[in-house]
Amino acid sequence: MIRVVLPAHLRSLTDISGEVQVEVAGPVTQRSVLDALEARYPKLLGTIRDHVTQQRRPFLRFFACSEDLSHESPDAPLPDAVASGVEPFLIIGAIAGG
Fold it and tell me: Starting from the edge strand earliest in sequence, which strands make up the sheet with 89-93, in order?
């Protein structure tokens, strides 16, 4: 099971409290984790990735094992600690403003 931590605005959209766990078949990548997350919580469709391009939304960032993975290929394998469930895959709302 892959552990996923969502920002508060996405947790409230889906009535989630705390982190969620999703089952991923095959390689554990950003794409496979997000596919599993959206399949389990259809209200998240289009909130994390664009419907058409599947690109990450501008004000969201992806982290795992203290690394910013936001600009990595969505098909690159996630760290082993995430794949084994030891560490969570974090989806963080970016902070902007002045």
Answer: 20-22, 2-5, 89-93, 60-64, 67-68
pLDDT along the chain (98 residues), means of 10: 94 90 95 96 94 90 96 96 97 79
Question: Closest by alpha carbon to 14, among 83, 91, 85, 72?
Answer: 91
pTM of the model: 0.91
Task: In whole angstroms, give the CA distance from residue 97 to residue 83.
Answer: 34
d(CA 62, CA 5): 10
| Integer Cα distance of 26 and 6 in angstroms | 22
Query: Chain-centre distance of CA 28, in angstroms?
Result: 12
pLDDT at 97: 66
